[in-house]
Specification:
157 residues
Length: 157
């Protein structure tokens, strides 16, 4: 299932991410795509809030993986600079099969390592404050979440 949500402010984007974050379970994988400045890290901050993470969440661009502790561990990854074999050497698959939630920026670089069930999120910058958030439920796990978001009047276009 696919769904597109228009966010008209950073707060609204944060609320959408928090809503999704409250629905996450151990082993869930979310991919985040979008140009620089689209709001990928901001979106991840909303997920972190839902997971009750107290630490400051920032971009893992140079560290590749940042781990945060909350009601579920959050593994925030930026794999832009990795080739698939490098990702395997780093043990990315262990995170994907682990006890927490993985949020992966630029996940197309490691697409062959991704699980069948995942939520692909693409954020497009429409203006200074407006964002188009496209959700694609791959596999069955996230179909229900997309349907709930579609029904939720706070997020309908």
């Amino acid at each position: 299932m696919q769904l597109e949500i228009l966010s008209t402010s950073p707060d609204e984007t944060m609320n959408i991410a928090q809503y999704i974050g409250h629905c996450l379970q151990k082993g869930d994988v979310l991919t985040l795509d979008g140009e620089l400045g689209a709001g990928k890290t901001h979106f991840t901050k909303g997920i972190a809030l839902a997971l009750e993470i107290k630490e400051v969440v920032n971009s893992p661009t140079f560290t590749i993986i940042k781990e945060y502790t909350g009601v579920l561990p959050l593994y925030h990854m930026d794999v832009y600079r990795l080739e698939e074999e490098e990702a395997e050497e780093l043990g990315i698959e262990e995170y994907l099969e682990g006890e927490g939630v993985c949020v992966i920026e630029w996940a197309d670089k490691i697409k062959n390592l991704l699980p069948i069930d995942r939520l692909e999120i693409t954020i497009k910058r429409m203006s200074e404050t407006d964002r188009s958030i496209h959700l694609n439920a791959v596999g069955k796990r996230f179909n229900g979440l997309c349907k709930e978001l579609q029904k939720n009047e706070n997020f309908s276009d």
